[in-house]
Amino acid sequence: MLRVSAYLAVTLAATLVAAGCAVVTGVPAQAPSPPAPSVVKGAGAARDATAAENATAAENARAGDPRWRLRGRGGEHEIEGFADRVSVLPGEGFRLYVSTTAGHYTARAFRVGWYGGAGARKVWESAELPGVRQAPPRTVPDTGAVTAAHWKPGPEVDTAGWPEGSYLIRLEAATGGRRYVPLTVRSASTGGRLVVVNAVTTWQAYNRWGGRSLYRGPGGFEDRSRAVSFDRPYDTSGARLFLDMERDAVEVAERSGVPLAYVTNLELDRDPHILDGARGLVSLGHDEYWSPHMRRTVEAARDHGTNLAFLGANAVYWRIRFAATPLGPGRMVVCHKDAAEDPGTVLWRDSGEPESSLTGPMYDCFPSESAYVVHRPGNWIFEGTGVRRGTVFPGMAGVETDKVVAGVPRPMEVLSVSPVDCGGRSTVAHSAYYTVPSGAAVFSSGTMRWVCAMRGARCGHGVTDRARVFVRRATGNILRVFAAGPAGREHPADDNLESLGLDGPAGR
Questions:
Q1: N or C: which end of the chain has fewer CB within 10 A?
Q2: CA distance 460 to 453
Q3: Is pLDDT larger for residue 154 or for residue 41?
Q4: CB atoms within 10 A of CB 121
């Protein structure tokens, strides 16, 4: 997204790690889940996918806890914290860094899922822990990055028995304040499964904790951070972008019962083989900040038959790199947004690789407050939704939207054509679907409200409960077909760009 206005779119020391801090195993909320089955690539993929599917269904058949929500955050700094790991493998530990004005606090871990509509399951809780009011944040002079790496370390948490998935660690001050610390318990292997990606680089880009983000500083855009650190809490609830842009899609995926794996952006950067054998990858509601290694990993997977679903808009927009912090490698996201300062951290399209060569539609508009209009009702993605050509879903094309431009991969099938007033500029937004020679298929919703619409009227912006039914059904169709293997073999894209006046040279 662009400069200061884009921030509004979403409102959207290692030396201290130390010695003497006990491991807090806490009390499991329920009996530990059985360990996830190992995944064997190749001939065993079908067996492993079945086992993973059973594990997903079995996990969501367990009793959930609807009390996972905050129900009040308390004062601004009453309690807040972060983890020294963005993700861990099942059974690995992580350390909490917590600041609170209360004398004591507790921590509870909730795995996000379906759970019969409860939305999460409590898997762990700590004993009462002593509270510490930590020192104020510091700013790194060269980049303007805000850090709390100098905080005194808190307890180390053991994740033994925690299933793979997206987690919210809820910190609860004795005085009543509550905040989240997000964590992903990631998959060591993704073979035979559909991979859910938590877009932590984008969460951090918008994080204004300590007064700075990649969009704003005390003096506005020019005073922004040029890098942002995971060594600090997230602002507001502690999990704003996960809750706004991802949680509902995770719930739909878990409810579908398809075999799921979980990773973050960081694994896509660090491990070029993390998607080997994966059936599909699901990018959730806002996935804007991508490193070259992330992009190469996903492109290679697509070209070997892995399906891709982009459920948001404005994906793969800013080009980033990672740097180390006092708490570990790769915990700093660097993005200067100015070629004069750093030609390597600019828009992907300005570096000669437009995002459209991967996503299909590419970022076009902010702000958009427009209706979503169906164009290809007969496509398999819309099966069972009851839509016709011209069916309108108010408010669903926004607040950022994408469109198809010349040079995109072919064949490409445009599924929706939504007229958009972009701050006085007339344009359109497109959902689209394309397929490649490997058999992989790629779906892009073209709107940032696709996941929000899963909440129906609770999304706001004029979105209706009818949209909730439509989006959840269409997303379920995508998940089930993409989890079965290269979708383009059974469902090749029916190219319609010429009929829409969008014909041009193919991008690949």
A1: C
A2: 9
A3: 154
A4: 24
Tokens describing residue 206: 């918008």
In three-state form (DSSP H/G/I as H, E/B as E, the rest C), the secondary structure along 88-148 is ECCCCEEEEEEEECCCEEEEEEEEECCHHHCCEEEEEECCCEECCCCCCCEECCCCCCEEC
How far is residue 6's CA from residue 10's CA, in Å, rounded to a whole number? Answer: 7
Place of tokens 């602002």: 235
Structure tokens at 411: 């064949």
Residue type, 322: F
Give me the amino acid identity at 4: V
Considering only CA atoms, which of 453, 430, 432, 454 is closest in space to residue 441? Answer: 432
Which tokens go with 430?
A: 């497109």
Tokens of 304: 């070997």
Closest CA to 24 of 121, 135, 182, 153: 153
Question: In whole angstroms, what is the distance from residue 136 CA to residue 488 CA?
Answer: 53
pLDDT digits (tens, 9 = 90+) for 10-49: 333 333 333 334 445 554 554 433 333 333 333 344 555 5
How far is 291 from 335, CA to CA, in rounded Å? 10
The residue whose two tokens read 């007339």 is 426
End-to-end CA distance of the chain: 25
CA distance 283 to 302: 13
Per the CB < 8 A criterion, the answer to whether 202 and 320 are in contact is no
